[in-house]
Design brief:
- It is a single chain.
- The chain is about 0% helix and about 40% strand.
- A three-stranded antiparallel beta sheet has the order 1-2-3, with no helix packed on it.
- The mean pLDDT is about 85.
Length: about 50
Amino acid sequence: MGHHVHVRLSQGLSVSADGELIEHSRCRCGATFTKVFDAEDGKPEDGARG
């Protein structure tokens, strides 16, 4: 019997009422995952590459 490894397939992004970025993903087996990023915790990313 083999082991199952969850492969997280992106299902999109949303923004909560509190301004958090929420990443939604799922596995083909039906498992779902949510990852929350708090925008207040860090500095904005610098888009410039040097």
